Predict the structure.
Amino acid sequence: MSAQPSVEDLSRVEKRNLFASGHRACGGCGQALAARLVADAAGENTIACVATGCLEIFSSPYPDPSWRIPFLHSLFENCSAVASGVEAAYKALNKGPVNIIAMGGDGSTADIGFQSISGMFERGHDILYVCYDNEAYMNTGVQRSSFTPLGARTTTTPTGNTTRKKHLPLIAADHNLPYVATATVDDFRDLQRKVKTALSIRGPKYIQVLAPCPLGWGHPGDLTVHICRLAKDTGLFPVYEIIDGKIANVVKVPVKKPVEDYLKLQGRFKHLFKKGAPADLVARIQDIAHQNIARFNI
Amino acid sequence: MTAKLPLGLALDLAKVVPYKTGSWRTMKPLYMMQTPPCTHSCPINNDIRGFLRVLADQQDYEAAWHLLCKTNPLPATTGRVCPHPCEEGCNRRDFDSPLAINASERAVGDYGLERRLDHKKEVLTPRKEKIAVVGSGPAGLSCAFHLAKRGFRVKIFEKDREPGGMMRWGIPAYRLPKEVLTREIDAILRLGIDLEVNVKVGVNLPMDQLLHEYDAVFLGLGAQVGSSMGIPGEDAKNVYTGVGFLKQVNGGRKVDVGRTVVVVGGGNTAMDCARVAKRLGADVSIVYRRTRVEMPAITAEIDEAMEERIMFRYHTNPVKIITDDDRVVGLLCVQMELKEADASGRARPVPIPGSESVLPADTVIMATGQEVDYEGLELARRESKWISTSEFLLTSLPKVFAGGDAVLGLETVSAAIGQGRRAAESIEDYLEGHEESSLGQPPVVYAKDLNRFYYQARRRFTKEAIPVHERLKSFSEIYPAYDPGEIAAEASRCFSCGMCFSCGNCLMYCPDNAVRVSPATGRYEFDYDFCKGCGLCARECPCHYIALTLEK
């Protein structure tokens, strides 16, 4: 990349519609919103390598894809490897510079594609990996992934998930990445600034975007942004950057909200508030929020 | 020979026809301007949101003045004397504190006077119809103003030597400097309105002659006569009615009130009389038969009167004025107790037998009510006191309309201006033979409709009054001029309820890119070919400018 972008460049909101209308996502889809914000922030000089998943399905049916930038579909497990190949090809052909963004859902990132993303980080390719975190395998019908939070109901955990969410940003950072960040779709300025910042840095980068799934989470489509905000305000989804291994720019929440505010809006947590629900489960989720708050000094 | 096929399938993006997801929609978002609560609670229906936005975005006081004067010809006046129900309605009320709309209005009004701005006519071709306006108070001026702007020929008849009505003779100069009023009326008259003073319709000029010469008549008579209490001793010297006293002082006459003044009543006139008497050097007490809660006066004025150390005697009712050689020496009062509410909704005072006492007084002012001066006019009346009108403000006489205090009962300057405006619309409809259209206003936006996440709490502008000991020395205005920059900053606190302020939320949050900026108007518009109706835009719109409706 060229010289360091200025602060104004980084904080400018971009609307280019490089991820265009006509895709088949559900109304209020957090991932569709996130994909457009990321594509618009990256700009025209970008190649998107997208793993199998909702995003790939709803955005690329022949003959009317939504992408207005080059798009490459790969499998769940090899998206990072394909992106690495694209980067290597550009290097070999002595072309570029170009922004290469690998994208996937949380299942292809943290479970199936974990070996290839770890390899990509380790080999040091100049690629930004964006993970759209909707906390389960939504495309195939809401199955549990390693990002599914404690207590959430999926079709494979009908009585609620019993394990905690994997914390991938910290794992990624431990690959000695120059830049790791988390973001949510409600703060589009923050998300676009992080994408632009990441693209201005050479080497592998990782951004995890919380992208609610109205269908899988069981909330009305109009609440997508509101729920993201609650995830931040309760401390369940800390928003921060890790620059050269150090946690920085944590989004502070002066007044924290109880996790019930967040949980009660979603169908996947409905069983927690029914009669006969395990009494301590909500308290354990609140504990996770407290741990996040303490760990990241939210 | 086989043709060399490309490695992959190349799609020409220019030829891609996107799939129209708009057909999935069951709910349909609409950009819809809604009524803000400030305008809804304003008796004149001023475009408060509009003028504040112009101030906040462009600091353009001239444009703000023109916007405000679309409905209100007297912004510098109402900016001083209006009890601002708009601020009661403001949706910031339970967020931090309501906007200082009244102060902003005064700043805009003062700017118009300083620059001597001229009102714009809405209809430039003069019309042949002539309209007579009787009375140059707020109702008459407002009616004349709106008719003149619509191209009619208007003449005002005023019984006193100067125009302004109760604004001139009833409101003391420390609240409304005469200079401000005069200049504001001059600006109205510059629209080409004729004014004839010292003519009392019904006395110097018969009503029949007016009806003969003019196509329509508006009566803005006001309630100019102070009613007396009907107790013994009222004819004594140094007993005044509230309006009579104020008119003498405001007319520049020297009034010797002596050392002790007792004002009877709890309305705005009583407060004005008490504060005027205080400035004339007397010790003043107000006698009221109920308590502060039931006082009809504006709260701010009661507060200011208390600041100026005016004594309030509640539960006290005068029985007799005690005179000595035709001069007042005291007021015999009885204590009252409050019983169950009467027809007006206020507690009913009942005298306590044997509780009489005497208040010494050099002057007694009876500010206990006002009436319409019907001399020479034959009009149907409501409750034998106020003029009865139809909902279009048409009186019992053909082509005669009426408005203001004479119709409403004792009300505010703003209410009278609002009625003048309504009457002007009715008169235009009447002259053009329209049935009045009953176009409803769009729904009102309340605090629950807003997404207040996007607003930040900010300190309200506070006006600084001159200290009490300074203000009692003269009749000069107690609130000095405000800083234009501070007012513009205050205006930027406006939530803009029900009107887009281009925050960009709908544009950025739509997962389907179904919001775009219209090339023609520069405003946002929906692309219904792709909108799936998820409602995210409506939910995240801070000001409730987007309504979600059922798709047909």
